[in-house]
Amino acid sequence: MKVRTRFAPSPTGDLHVGGVRTALFSWLYAKHHGGDFLLRIEDTDVERSTECSTQVILDGLAWLNIQSDEPICYQSQRFDYYKEIIEKLLTSGQAYRCYCSKQRLEEVRAGQMAAKEKPRYDGHCRDKNLPETNEPHVIRFRNPDSGAVHFVDQVYGDITVQNSELDDLIIARTDGTPTYNLCVVADDLAMGITHVIRGEDHVNNTPKQINILKALGADVPVYAHLPMILGEDGKRLSKRHGAVSVLEFREQGILPQALLNYLVRLGWSHGDQEIFSRNEMIRDFDLPAVNRSSAGFNHDKLCWLNQHYLKTTPVSDFLPDLLYQFQRLHLEPKDGPVLEKLVVVQAERCKTLSEIVEKSEYFYKETLEYERIDEAARKKLFKADLVRPLSEIRRGLFELSAWEASSIHTVIKETLEKLELSLGKVGPTLRLALTGTTTSPSIDVTLELLGKQRTLDRLKSALDYIEESDFVND
């Protein structure tokens, strides 16, 4: 039997971390066993489903390179098929029409609550074999009234639910549209799904869906329910914990490789290994190793992992994401240093692509506006007694033929030794003059990346500014 898994999100909002992990585990399980992974968009909720949310799902999965092995299934295009399934259940007596009014159902529910009974449909229309009329009605599944549903969850183990605990659930609304549980069963059957991997919030749906499958004479797939993801405070992950939508992580400059590596370790382990390539994930992943306990999301750990990938991954592998960050800040990559060199230097200090580009902005500007630099830093570092050392350094740099960090370092070192000054005295002013900031990579590396002409121009501008400023002699 060829393994076939599916990811079936509803396009009613963003693609969240929990959904991405479910998609990842489903995809990995299929690939580990040489099977197929399918994508199904469950968009039967016309009022809440949107094209925008659908596109967010597709964009998020494309960014992570989790692709369906077959054309995407859209439930909204399959209503005729669902109608056939419902008719089949009606014909076999496994479903029936229910004409109970909303008022009657509310009265029954109130009575059950008062008697401290579990609210459920009382079967008023169950055995009446009512024909179809123009009167408002729903169609209910005739759930077995005895016995039990038993399945072996690949994460939680044996689960048994008595049929007496289950309701005759509605499978078609008064307007004829099919309900969630009917559509899921019908599609899993039509798509030949062998393994259903989804969140633990669906555990209660599984016995109902198994009974519908059995009523249709279909094979029951293997089920695996994944524990939820919690925030660092132990509560269910939500927006208050920071980014939870997959595309928010792209905005932050998280690499898709890093996010997948981080998510695969949320609830699954393979010894003590922390870093997994895509091929290693496929090779090692299996459901028995999934933990039953909820996993905690730690943003600092994700950033640490992301920095590892920034340091060890060729820039070509994440170039689109890097260019996206330049575009976001309206910077032109060709106006600055070679990107490969930039990333090598900044990845030692930065944990995300957005941080790399934000902290490299000065490399891509023609000039610096010193008046916009922090006033306290200007007053502290732009002093008249530093005009001479800056001028001497500029003169030495002008004469350099080989513009590289080692020769730049030599010029600065020899100039300061001649003037009997320390780098601690001049370095901060030199850095502020060239970058407009008080932090950057080492001075020699920064100047190499900045380029000779831009370095000389900025030193000239800084010297002019210092000599013209009122506060230099304060």
Brief digest:
With 474 residues, the protein is mainly alpha-helical.
Account of the protein in words:
With 474 residues, this protein is mostly helical. Among the domains are: 314-365; 367-473, Arc Repressor Mutant, subunit A (Orthogonal Bundle), CATH 1.10.10.350. It has helices spanning 17-32, 51-64, 79-91, 102-114, 180-190, 205-215, 246-252, 256-264, 278-284, 299-312, 319-328, 339-346, 353-358, 375-381, 387-398, 405-418, 423-435, 443-450, 452-468, and strands at residues 4-7, 36-41, 73-74, 95-98, 138-141, 148-153, 157-162, 170-172, 195-199, 222-226, 229-230, 295-296. Helix 5 packs across helix 6 and helix 16 crosses helix 18. The longest helix is centred in the C-terminal third of the chain and has 17 residues, at 452-468. The mean pLDDT is 93.
Features:
3-stranded parallel β-sheet; mainly alpha; 19 helices; 474 residues; Arc Repressor Mutant, subunit A; 12 strands; single chain
Strand residues, percent:
5-15%
Q: What form results from the Cα inertia axes?
A: elongated
CATH architecture of the domain at 367-473: Orthogonal Bundle
Mean pLDDT: 93
Instruction: Report on the biggest sheet.
Output: 3 strands, parallel
**What is the CATH class name of the domain at 367-473?**
Mainly Alpha
Helix percent band: 40-55%
CATH topology of the domain at 367-473: Arc Repressor Mutant, subunit A
Radius of gyration: 32 Å
Number of strands: 12
